[in-house]
Amino acid sequence: MSIVGEKTFKGKTSELLINLNRLREANVLCDVTFKVDGQKISCHKAILAAYSKHFENKFTSGTQEYLGEEIELTGFTATTFLTILQFVYNQTITISNSNVLQIYEACEQMQINPVKDFCEEFINEELQVGNCLRFRFFALRYQNRTLTAKCENFILNNFQLVTNENEFKELSVDDAQGLLAMKKQQDPQPAELFFGIILDWVKYNPEKRAQFFERLLQMVDITNLPTKYLNDFTKRAEKWVMKTDVYVQTVVPELLNRLSNPTKNVKTEDNLKFMVVGDEDQKSKSVTVYNVKSKTWKNMKSTKYHRYGASTVKIKSRVYTAGGRKSKNVETFDLENIEDDWQLVLPMKQNRWRAASAVINDKMYTVGGWDEGTLATAEVYDPGLDKWELFASLITQRAHHALVSWQGCLYAFGGNSHGGGELNSLETYDPRNGKWKSLANMKEKRDGLCGVALNHSLYAIGAWFDESGGNGLSSVERYDLRMNKWTDSCNLKMSRSAACACVVDGKIYVVGRYNSRGEKKASKSVECFDPKGDEWLLETDMEAARVYATVVAL
């Protein structure tokens, strides 16, 4: 009989197996004895080998420790081993919340896959607010991508309840930030919700966690917090909060500014925009902003330098654009003072044309590009220090590629490699270990693609490829970050190469294009993709055609 938190799974049994189990329990005709957790357990080699590739290899390869009369097994308890043996002989196993992880671990070690599948099914059915984080970390540990995805979907769909649990509050800062970033990317939440979650996490152990308050609050746009919320927060602020730089330098000044300017509007979703910078025309320094709600364009202050094949990011309230043809110059624009000119900051260490940039923890990572040849080198810019530093070079030199960030890691894909032609490779960089790692290749080679990250997926959009006769591609591929697999996505309305893309309000916007290497006909058009509708739609036209521009969500 099954009870809450317990389920019995049955396979196909037989009279033969039933009789063999009777003999095993009576220790008759057994030819192997295991010592597990101090307890001796006898059974039949042939039966174990038939169910476990691990035991088959051990029994047939002459492994030294398997030649004696008694074989010691470690890594699990005798109770766990006997529970699994009951399935091997009787095709019946009872799995519960108290034993599921131990059984899975043992079956992973012994390579008994049917029982692992039962454990996974049990976890899927038993996912709850109080255990989903524990099951997710378990799935990550064993690289079970399917189970990880199901746990993460449950967490994201029950995010507020999950973050109220002590299990969330006991997470490390990296794990807490990772889940917050995942939720922010999947479904942007009100600023006060994230602020409250972060505050509760720090307050769980303020002596050790106050140092992380500013780091986590980088995920919250303070200007989106309601004035009453800010006012109430400052009135209730504890001593450890008032000692933090973010409280003194950001929260209090923002509130004072609001109180002294009562008519100042807090930013709303009605102001969702993206900025387009530069163009192939080297006379062009133009900058324009598109409002996705009002569907209107607004020209902004021009950059100081030509931005042809540059890369652009947003960090807090500032936009940074870097590089271009024979350029290593970098300049920044203050979104809170739009009448001010662009300002130069420290240049990169080398020229980078058709490089790509992304942001992690309020730092600008710029990789690859072209400088008298394709580059593998990479640099990172810290706006607080106005300083560029080199970091680990790409595995494959590449230019005209895509670079995105997701959950604290970089993903570089596509482009071209000098002498090596167009690329379909994907590699990822984790700042925590300072290394790049290769992942699954795209189906198509894509030079001049654009790419974004959205809902646990990377999108490789358009490009051109010489084997297609130099024509632009309208195809799109989607990479599942949890499954390490590329699949075809919905095609663009028209072929696009040398375009640029960003995500605003959960939708992908692709700006400009070339149609082919030969004809090189530029376009004014902008396409939009909503994953919920699974269709690309023509969104609008720009005032002028653009290629090799760069775009950033504001």
Automatic annotation (TrEMBL):
Pfam family, one: Kelch_KLHDC2_KLHL20_DRC7
GO annotation, biological process: proteasome-mediated ubiquitin-dependent protein catabolic process
GO molecular function, one term: ubiquitin-like ligase-substrate adaptor activity
Alphabetized UniProt keyword annotations: Kelch repeat, Repeat
Ranges for domain BTB: 30-97
GO CC entries: Cul3-RING ubiquitin ligase complex; cytoplasm
Name of the protein in question: BTB domain-containing protein
